[in-house]
TrEMBL record:
InterPro entries: MoaB/Mog-like_dom_sf, MoaB/Mog_dom, MoeA-like, MoeA_C_domain_IV_sf, MoeA_linker/N, MoeA_linker/N_sf. Keywords: Magnesium, Metal-binding, Molybdenum, Molybdenum cofactor biosynthesis, Transferase. It catalyses: adenylyl-molybdopterin + molybdate = Mo-molybdopterin + AMP + H(+). Belongs to the MoeA family. It comes from Candidatus Desulfacyla euxinica. It comes from the Bacteria. Gene3D superfamilies: MoaB/Mog-like domain (3.40.980.10), MoeA, C-terminal, domain IV (2.40.340.10), Molybdopterin biosynthesis moea protein, domain 2 (3.90.105.10), Molybdopterin biosynthesis moea protein, domain 3 (2.170.190.11). This is Molybdopterin molybdenumtransferase. GO terms for cellular component: cytosol.
Length: 405
Protein backbone atom coordinates (compact mmCIF):
# COMPACT_ATOMS: atom_id res chain seq x y z
CA UNK A 1 0.00 0.00 0.00
CA UNK A 2 1.40 3.41 -0.99
CA UNK A 3 1.50 5.82 1.94
CA UNK A 4 -0.11 9.13 1.13
CA UNK A 5 2.25 12.11 1.24
CA UNK A 6 0.12 14.92 -0.16
CA UNK A 7 -2.82 16.83 1.31
CA UNK A 8 -2.85 14.85 4.55
CA UNK A 9 -4.62 15.71 7.81
CA UNK A 10 -2.93 17.65 10.59
CA UNK A 11 -2.91 14.76 13.06
CA UNK A 12 -1.39 12.44 10.46
CA UNK A 13 1.24 15.06 9.60
CA UNK A 14 2.20 15.49 13.25
CA UNK A 15 2.36 11.72 13.66
CA UNK A 16 4.73 11.51 10.70
CA UNK A 17 6.94 14.25 12.16
CA UNK A 18 7.23 12.56 15.54
CA UNK A 19 7.57 9.11 14.01
CA UNK A 20 10.44 10.24 11.79
CA UNK A 21 12.53 12.27 14.21
CA UNK A 22 14.59 10.61 16.93
CA UNK A 23 16.38 11.96 19.96
CA UNK A 24 20.15 12.08 19.52
CA UNK A 25 22.52 10.29 21.87
CA UNK A 26 23.07 12.15 25.16
CA UNK A 27 26.22 14.19 25.69
CA UNK A 28 28.01 14.93 28.96
CA UNK A 29 28.36 18.63 29.72
CA UNK A 30 29.67 20.58 32.73
CA UNK A 31 26.96 21.53 35.19
CA UNK A 32 27.33 25.23 34.35
CA UNK A 33 26.53 24.59 30.66
CA UNK A 34 23.31 22.57 30.90
CA UNK A 35 20.69 25.20 31.75
CA UNK A 36 17.45 24.72 29.76
CA UNK A 37 18.55 21.30 28.50
CA UNK A 38 16.85 17.99 29.34
CA UNK A 39 18.42 15.47 31.71
CA UNK A 40 19.08 12.18 29.90
CA UNK A 41 19.03 10.08 33.09
CA UNK A 42 18.19 10.24 36.79
CA UNK A 43 20.80 12.27 38.68
CA UNK A 44 21.76 11.52 42.29
CA UNK A 45 23.73 13.61 44.76
CA UNK A 46 27.38 12.61 45.14
CA UNK A 47 28.00 14.69 48.26
CA UNK A 48 26.22 16.01 51.33
CA UNK A 49 25.29 19.68 51.38
CA UNK A 50 26.33 21.18 53.65
CA UNK A 51 29.24 18.81 54.09
CA UNK A 52 29.35 19.61 57.82
CA UNK A 53 26.92 21.08 60.33
CA UNK A 54 27.42 24.84 59.98
CA UNK A 55 26.33 28.21 61.32
CA UNK A 56 23.64 30.23 59.59
CA UNK A 57 24.69 33.47 61.34
CA UNK A 58 27.67 35.37 62.63
CA UNK A 59 27.58 34.76 66.37
CA UNK A 60 28.71 32.35 69.06
CA UNK A 61 28.43 28.56 69.20
CA UNK A 62 27.08 27.65 72.62
CA UNK A 63 25.55 24.95 74.74
CA UNK A 64 21.91 26.02 74.63
CA UNK A 65 21.28 25.00 78.23
CA UNK A 66 23.93 27.51 79.42
CA UNK A 67 21.90 30.47 78.18
CA UNK A 68 18.30 29.25 78.45
CA UNK A 69 17.58 31.93 81.10
CA UNK A 70 19.54 34.75 79.41
CA UNK A 71 17.87 38.14 78.86
CA UNK A 72 18.79 41.81 78.49
CA UNK A 73 18.13 42.35 82.16
CA UNK A 74 19.95 39.22 83.26
CA UNK A 75 22.63 38.36 80.68
CA UNK A 76 24.70 35.20 80.87
CA UNK A 77 28.49 35.48 80.67
CA UNK A 78 30.51 32.80 78.81
CA UNK A 79 34.24 32.35 78.16
CA UNK A 80 35.28 32.78 74.52
CA UNK A 81 37.81 30.05 73.76
CA UNK A 82 38.31 30.47 70.03
CA UNK A 83 37.00 31.53 66.64
CA UNK A 84 35.95 29.64 63.47
CA UNK A 85 35.29 30.88 59.94
CA UNK A 86 33.86 29.16 56.88
CA UNK A 87 36.34 26.68 55.51
CA UNK A 88 38.33 26.23 58.73
CA UNK A 89 39.15 22.55 59.16
CA UNK A 90 39.16 22.55 62.98
CA UNK A 91 37.22 24.68 65.41
CA UNK A 92 37.94 23.20 68.84
CA UNK A 93 35.15 22.15 71.15
CA UNK A 94 32.58 24.00 73.23
CA UNK A 95 32.34 22.99 76.85
CA UNK A 96 29.68 24.11 79.37
CA UNK A 97 30.31 27.70 80.36
CA UNK A 98 32.23 28.52 77.18
CA UNK A 99 31.56 29.69 73.61
CA UNK A 100 33.41 29.84 70.31
CA UNK A 101 32.91 32.77 67.97
CA UNK A 102 31.68 31.60 64.55
CA UNK A 103 31.13 33.33 61.23
CA UNK A 104 28.37 32.46 58.76
CA UNK A 105 29.13 29.13 57.09
CA UNK A 106 31.65 28.01 59.73
CA UNK A 107 31.49 24.48 61.11
CA UNK A 108 29.61 24.31 64.40
CA UNK A 109 32.18 23.12 66.97
CA UNK A 110 31.82 19.83 68.78
CA UNK A 111 29.78 20.16 71.95
CA UNK A 112 27.71 23.14 70.74
CA UNK A 113 24.04 22.68 69.85
CA UNK A 114 23.08 26.28 69.02
CA UNK A 115 24.42 29.58 67.71
CA UNK A 116 23.39 32.85 69.32
CA UNK A 117 23.31 35.63 66.73
CA UNK A 118 25.90 38.34 67.26
CA UNK A 119 23.30 41.09 67.62
CA UNK A 120 22.13 39.50 70.88
CA UNK A 121 25.61 39.54 72.41
CA UNK A 122 28.27 41.90 73.75
CA UNK A 123 31.91 40.82 73.80
CA UNK A 124 34.10 41.87 76.70
CA UNK A 125 37.79 40.91 76.53
CA UNK A 126 37.73 37.07 76.34
CA UNK A 127 34.12 36.84 77.42
CA UNK A 128 30.74 37.30 75.79
CA UNK A 129 27.49 38.51 77.36
CA UNK A 130 24.48 36.66 75.99
CA UNK A 131 21.36 38.85 76.08
CA UNK A 132 18.92 36.22 74.80
CA UNK A 133 18.45 32.47 74.84
CA UNK A 134 19.11 30.17 71.87
CA UNK A 135 17.22 26.88 71.89
CA UNK A 136 18.83 23.71 70.50
CA UNK A 137 19.28 23.98 66.73
CA UNK A 138 19.00 27.78 66.63
CA UNK A 139 20.94 29.17 63.60
CA UNK A 140 22.39 25.72 62.88
CA UNK A 141 22.26 24.05 59.46
CA UNK A 142 22.80 20.31 59.93
CA UNK A 143 24.99 18.30 57.57
CA UNK A 144 23.00 17.08 54.56
CA UNK A 145 20.02 19.35 55.23
CA UNK A 146 19.94 20.61 51.64
CA UNK A 147 20.78 17.27 50.05
CA UNK A 148 22.31 13.99 51.18
CA UNK A 149 24.57 11.68 49.21
CA UNK A 150 22.40 9.34 47.14
CA UNK A 151 19.33 11.59 47.07
CA UNK A 152 17.53 11.87 43.71
CA UNK A 153 18.12 15.46 42.60
CA UNK A 154 16.78 15.47 39.01
CA UNK A 155 14.65 12.91 37.17
CA UNK A 156 15.26 11.80 33.61
CA UNK A 157 13.39 14.03 31.20
CA UNK A 158 13.33 17.02 33.55
CA UNK A 159 14.38 20.42 32.24
CA UNK A 160 17.42 21.80 34.01
CA UNK A 161 16.43 25.23 35.30
CA UNK A 162 19.00 27.68 36.73
CA UNK A 163 18.08 26.70 40.28
CA UNK A 164 18.33 22.98 39.49
CA UNK A 165 21.83 23.39 38.07
CA UNK A 166 22.88 25.03 41.34
CA UNK A 167 21.22 22.21 43.28
CA UNK A 168 23.17 19.65 41.25
CA UNK A 169 26.41 21.49 41.88
CA UNK A 170 25.67 21.64 45.62
CA UNK A 171 25.15 17.88 45.56
CA UNK A 172 28.53 17.27 43.96
CA UNK A 173 27.25 16.45 40.44
CA UNK A 174 29.60 18.10 37.96
CA UNK A 175 29.11 16.29 34.61
CA UNK A 176 25.52 16.03 33.39
CA UNK A 177 24.23 13.72 30.62
CA UNK A 178 21.78 15.80 28.59
CA UNK A 179 20.01 15.84 25.24
CA UNK A 180 21.61 18.66 23.23
CA UNK A 181 19.37 21.30 21.69
CA UNK A 182 19.26 21.02 17.90
CA UNK A 183 21.09 23.72 15.97
CA UNK A 184 18.59 25.20 13.53
CA UNK A 185 19.24 26.97 10.22
CA UNK A 186 16.60 29.22 8.66
CA UNK A 187 16.64 30.24 5.00
CA UNK A 188 14.12 32.77 3.67
CA UNK A 189 13.76 32.78 -0.12
CA UNK A 190 12.37 35.33 -2.57
CA UNK A 191 13.49 38.21 -4.78
CA UNK A 192 11.07 40.42 -2.87
CA UNK A 193 12.46 39.51 0.57
CA UNK A 194 15.01 41.83 2.18
CA UNK A 195 17.04 41.10 5.31
CA UNK A 196 16.25 43.47 8.22
CA UNK A 197 18.28 46.66 7.95
CA UNK A 198 18.76 46.51 4.18
CA UNK A 199 17.43 49.09 1.69
CA UNK A 200 13.82 48.45 0.71
CA UNK A 201 12.65 49.01 -2.86
CA UNK A 202 8.99 49.39 -3.89
CA UNK A 203 7.32 46.00 -3.93
CA UNK A 204 9.82 44.45 -1.54
CA UNK A 205 9.28 43.51 2.09
CA UNK A 206 11.42 42.80 5.10
CA UNK A 207 11.94 39.19 6.16
CA UNK A 208 9.56 39.33 9.11
CA UNK A 209 8.95 35.56 8.94
CA UNK A 210 12.66 34.94 9.39
CA UNK A 211 12.73 37.22 12.46
CA UNK A 212 9.62 35.60 13.96
CA UNK A 213 11.02 32.09 13.52
CA UNK A 214 14.41 33.18 14.85
CA UNK A 215 12.78 34.66 17.93
CA UNK A 216 10.63 31.59 18.63
CA UNK A 217 13.70 29.36 18.42
CA UNK A 218 15.76 31.59 20.68
CA UNK A 219 12.86 31.79 23.12
CA UNK A 220 13.05 28.02 23.52
CA UNK A 221 16.85 27.98 23.72
CA UNK A 222 17.68 26.58 20.27
CA UNK A 223 20.89 27.85 18.62
CA UNK A 224 19.94 29.41 15.30
CA UNK A 225 21.49 30.93 12.17
CA UNK A 226 19.56 32.56 9.34
CA UNK A 227 20.02 33.85 5.82
CA UNK A 228 18.01 35.45 3.00
CA UNK A 229 18.52 34.16 -0.56
CA UNK A 230 17.12 35.23 -3.93
CA UNK A 231 14.96 33.06 -6.21
CA UNK A 232 17.92 31.43 -7.92
CA UNK A 233 17.95 27.61 -7.89
CA UNK A 234 21.76 27.34 -7.81
CA UNK A 235 22.06 29.89 -5.02
CA UNK A 236 19.24 28.25 -3.06
CA UNK A 237 20.90 24.84 -3.36
CA UNK A 238 24.30 26.24 -2.38
CA UNK A 239 22.76 27.97 0.65
CA UNK A 240 20.87 24.88 1.80
CA UNK A 241 24.03 22.79 1.59
CA UNK A 242 26.12 25.36 3.44
CA UNK A 243 23.59 26.06 6.20
CA UNK A 244 22.71 22.42 6.83
CA UNK A 245 26.37 21.39 7.10
CA UNK A 246 26.54 23.24 10.42
CA UNK A 247 23.01 22.56 11.67
CA UNK A 248 20.81 19.70 12.84
CA UNK A 249 17.62 20.94 11.17
CA UNK A 250 16.66 23.33 8.38
CA UNK A 251 13.63 25.59 8.17
CA UNK A 252 12.82 27.31 4.91
CA UNK A 253 10.45 30.25 4.53
CA UNK A 254 8.62 30.77 1.23
CA UNK A 255 8.56 28.92 -2.08
CA UNK A 256 6.65 25.95 -0.70
CA UNK A 257 3.61 26.03 -3.00
CA UNK A 258 3.26 24.93 -6.63
CA UNK A 259 3.82 27.95 -8.90
CA UNK A 260 6.76 28.39 -11.26
CA UNK A 261 8.40 30.77 -8.75
CA UNK A 262 8.07 28.37 -5.81
CA UNK A 263 11.52 26.84 -5.95
CA UNK A 264 12.15 25.48 -2.46
CA UNK A 265 10.59 22.02 -2.75
CA UNK A 266 11.78 21.71 -6.35
CA UNK A 267 15.40 22.33 -5.32
CA UNK A 268 15.11 19.86 -2.44
CA UNK A 269 13.71 17.27 -4.86
CA UNK A 270 16.76 17.78 -7.06
CA UNK A 271 19.02 17.44 -4.01
CA UNK A 272 17.50 14.00 -3.35
CA UNK A 273 15.67 14.62 -0.09
CA UNK A 274 13.21 12.04 1.25
CA UNK A 275 9.79 13.70 1.18
CA UNK A 276 7.67 12.78 4.21
CA UNK A 277 4.65 14.94 3.34
CA UNK A 278 3.67 18.05 1.40
CA UNK A 279 0.52 20.09 1.97
CA UNK A 280 -1.52 19.55 5.12
CA UNK A 281 -5.24 20.07 5.54
CA UNK A 282 -4.86 23.00 7.93
CA UNK A 283 -5.46 26.71 7.72
CA UNK A 284 -3.41 28.78 7.85
CA UNK A 285 -0.32 26.75 6.93
CA UNK A 286 -1.51 24.35 4.23
CA UNK A 287 1.57 24.51 1.96
CA UNK A 288 3.97 23.11 4.60
CA UNK A 289 6.28 20.26 3.59
CA UNK A 290 8.65 18.07 5.59
CA UNK A 291 11.42 15.74 4.52
CA UNK A 292 14.86 14.37 5.38
CA UNK A 293 18.08 15.49 3.72
CA UNK A 294 21.39 13.93 4.78
CA UNK A 295 19.52 12.36 7.71
CA UNK A 296 18.46 15.81 8.93
CA UNK A 297 14.90 17.19 9.01
CA UNK A 298 13.88 19.97 6.64
CA UNK A 299 10.62 21.86 7.17
CA UNK A 300 9.45 23.97 4.23
CA UNK A 301 7.16 26.66 5.61
CA UNK A 302 4.79 28.81 3.52
CA UNK A 303 5.65 32.45 2.84
CA UNK A 304 2.50 34.15 4.18
CA UNK A 305 3.15 35.27 7.78
CA UNK A 306 0.18 33.52 9.47
CA UNK A 307 0.75 30.33 7.44
CA UNK A 308 4.47 30.44 8.12
CA UNK A 309 4.10 30.76 11.89
CA UNK A 310 1.20 28.30 12.23
CA UNK A 311 2.96 25.57 10.27
CA UNK A 312 6.02 26.12 12.44
CA UNK A 313 4.12 26.05 15.74
CA UNK A 314 1.98 23.02 14.93
CA UNK A 315 4.50 20.79 13.13
CA UNK A 316 8.11 21.98 13.09
CA UNK A 317 8.34 23.09 16.72
CA UNK A 318 6.98 19.80 18.19
CA UNK A 319 9.54 17.97 16.05
CA UNK A 320 12.39 20.12 17.33
CA UNK A 321 11.17 19.61 20.89
CA UNK A 322 11.34 15.85 20.39
CA UNK A 323 14.90 16.07 19.07
CA UNK A 324 15.80 18.11 22.18
CA UNK A 325 14.42 15.41 24.47
CA UNK A 326 11.42 17.51 25.48
CA UNK A 327 7.76 16.59 25.42
CA UNK A 328 6.59 17.44 21.88
CA UNK A 329 3.82 19.64 23.26
CA UNK A 330 5.30 23.15 23.27
CA UNK A 331 2.32 25.00 24.77
CA UNK A 332 0.05 24.60 27.72
CA UNK A 333 -3.65 23.93 27.23
CA UNK A 334 -6.31 26.04 28.97
CA UNK A 335 -10.07 25.61 29.12
CA UNK A 336 -11.87 28.83 28.30
CA UNK A 337 -15.29 29.98 27.18
CA UNK A 338 -15.47 31.15 23.56
CA UNK A 339 -16.41 34.84 23.29
CA UNK A 340 -17.69 34.78 19.70
CA UNK A 341 -18.52 32.15 17.10
CA UNK A 342 -15.74 30.77 14.92
CA UNK A 343 -16.27 28.86 11.69
CA UNK A 344 -14.64 25.62 10.71
CA UNK A 345 -14.45 23.35 7.68
CA UNK A 346 -15.35 19.70 7.29
CA UNK A 347 -12.28 19.21 5.10
CA UNK A 348 -9.49 20.70 7.24
CA UNK A 349 -8.37 22.00 10.66
CA UNK A 350 -8.78 25.74 11.15
CA UNK A 351 -6.82 27.91 13.62
CA UNK A 352 -7.64 31.35 14.99
CA UNK A 353 -5.47 33.74 16.96
CA UNK A 354 -7.06 34.92 20.19
CA UNK A 355 -6.52 36.89 23.36
CA UNK A 356 -7.55 35.74 26.83
CA UNK A 357 -9.79 37.80 29.11
CA UNK A 358 -10.80 37.22 32.72
CA UNK A 359 -14.52 37.86 33.10
CA UNK A 360 -15.72 37.24 36.63
CA UNK A 361 -14.75 33.71 37.61
CA UNK A 362 -14.09 32.50 34.06
CA UNK A 363 -11.46 32.88 31.37
CA UNK A 364 -12.73 33.73 27.91
CA UNK A 365 -11.05 33.24 24.55
CA UNK A 366 -11.64 36.23 22.29
CA UNK A 367 -10.89 35.56 18.59
CA UNK A 368 -8.85 38.34 17.02
CA UNK A 369 -10.51 39.81 13.96
CA UNK A 370 -8.03 42.52 12.98
CA UNK A 371 -7.63 43.63 9.38
CA UNK A 372 -3.85 43.12 9.52
CA UNK A 373 -2.66 39.51 9.54
CA UNK A 374 0.64 40.47 11.13
CA UNK A 375 -1.02 42.60 13.82
CA UNK A 376 -3.33 39.73 14.73
CA UNK A 377 -0.36 37.39 14.86
CA UNK A 378 1.62 39.83 17.00
CA UNK A 379 -1.16 40.34 19.56
CA UNK A 380 -2.20 36.69 19.94
CA UNK A 381 -1.94 35.13 23.40
CA UNK A 382 -3.66 31.87 22.49
CA UNK A 383 -4.65 29.72 19.52
CA UNK A 384 -8.14 28.35 18.93
CA UNK A 385 -8.31 25.06 17.03
CA UNK A 386 -11.41 24.01 15.11
CA UNK A 387 -10.81 20.34 14.25
CA UNK A 388 -11.40 18.89 10.82
CA UNK A 389 -15.03 17.85 10.46
CA UNK A 390 -16.41 20.65 12.68
CA UNK A 391 -18.13 23.48 10.80
CA UNK A 392 -18.43 25.93 13.70
CA UNK A 393 -18.03 26.45 17.44
CA UNK A 394 -20.73 28.56 19.02
CA UNK A 395 -20.18 31.59 21.25
CA UNK A 396 -20.32 30.56 24.91
CA UNK A 397 -19.04 27.01 24.31
CA UNK A 398 -16.20 25.72 26.49
CA UNK A 399 -13.10 25.02 24.41
CA UNK A 400 -9.43 24.24 24.89
CA UNK A 401 -6.86 26.73 23.59
CA UNK A 402 -3.10 26.58 23.19
CA UNK A 403 -1.62 29.25 25.44
CA UNK A 404 1.27 31.13 23.84
CA UNK A 405 4.15 32.32 26.04
Amino acid sequence: MIKKKYDIGLEEALSKVLGTLERPSPVNLPVDEVCDLIAAEDLFAAADCPSATSSLKDGYAVVSKDIEEASKDDPVKLRVTGMSAAGDSTSGAVEPGSAIKVLTGARVPQGADAVISIEFTREQANQVLCLKNAEPGRNVLSRGTDVETGDLVVSKGEMLTPALTGFLAAGGVHQIPVFPSPRVAIVATGDEVVAPGGPLKPGQLYASNLVTLNSWLRHFGFPVKSRVVKDNPKEIRRTFTSMLSDADALLTSGGAWKSERDLTVRVLDEMGWELIFHRVRMGPGKAVAMGMLDEKPVFCLPGGPPSNEMAFLQLALPGLFQIAGRSPIPFGIKKVRLASEVGGDFTWTQFYQAILERRGEEWWGVPLKMKSRIQSQARAKALIKVPEGVDRIEAGDMIEVQVLP
